[in-house]
Amino acid sequence: MKVSKASSLRELSDSELVKQFREATLQNVPATEINDIKTINHLDDYTSAIYKELRSRGRESQNALLPLLEDDDINVRGAAASRVVDFEPNRAIPVLKAVESTPLGRAAASLARVALVRWEQKQAVS
Q1: CA atoms within 13 A on the CB side of 68
Q2: Whose CA is closest to 61, among 9, 114, 6?
Q3: Residue 91 falls inside a structural domain
Q4: CA distances to 1, 28, 82 from 24, in Å
Q5: Is residue 7 assigned to a domain?
Q6: pLDDT at position 12
Q7: Helix 14-33 vs helix 74-84: angle between axes, to the nearest 10 degrees?
Q8: Of 13, 63, 84, 110, which has the most beta carbons under 10 Å away?
Q9: How far apart are CA 12 and CA 34, in angstroms?
Q10: Cβ distance 105 to 75 under 8 Å?
Q11: Which of the four pLDDT bands, split at 50, 70 and 90, describes residue 64?
């Protein structure tokens, strides 16, 4: 997968952005397994930029991530839920809890745990 520059993210449709988000998440798995910090950081920055672009377009665009909550890949479900929790906590939290408790995918479980803690901290401040 060729990673698009942030400026070109604006040119992509919501569905193309979601596809890029999914692909970057899948690429992050092998990078995590071999502890390739440079690639992990690059892909994390990229998925963050994609989410920022979707968020800038409004709620309908953010909703494009919702189908990823049911993706076949646990890492994709967890990554999507970690973003979706900000605007659809009732749908994202069960996914995060399921990902967190799975014996598969330590990276996915860690991401889910961090997302849950951050969301709980935001709720305590609100």
Answers
A1: 29
A2: 9
A3: yes
A4: 8, 6, 15
A5: no
A6: 95
A7: 120
A8: 84
A9: 31
A10: yes
A11: very high
Please give the helix or strand (H or E) that residue 39 lies within, else none. Answer: helix 37-57
Number of domains in the chain: 1
| Contact of 119 with 40, CB cutoff 8 Å | no
User: Is 3 domain-assigned?
Assistant: no
Question: Is position 33 within any domain?
Answer: yes
Taking the C-alpha atoms of residue 11 and residue 76, their distance in angstroms, rounded to an integer, is 23
CA distance 28 to 73: 12
The CATH number linked to 87 is 1.25.40.70
**Up-side HSE of residue 12: CA atoms within 13 Å toward CB?**
22
Dist CA 46 CA 117 (whole Å):
22
Q: What is the pLDDT of residues 67-92, one digit of tens each?
A: 999 999 999 999 999 999 999 999 99
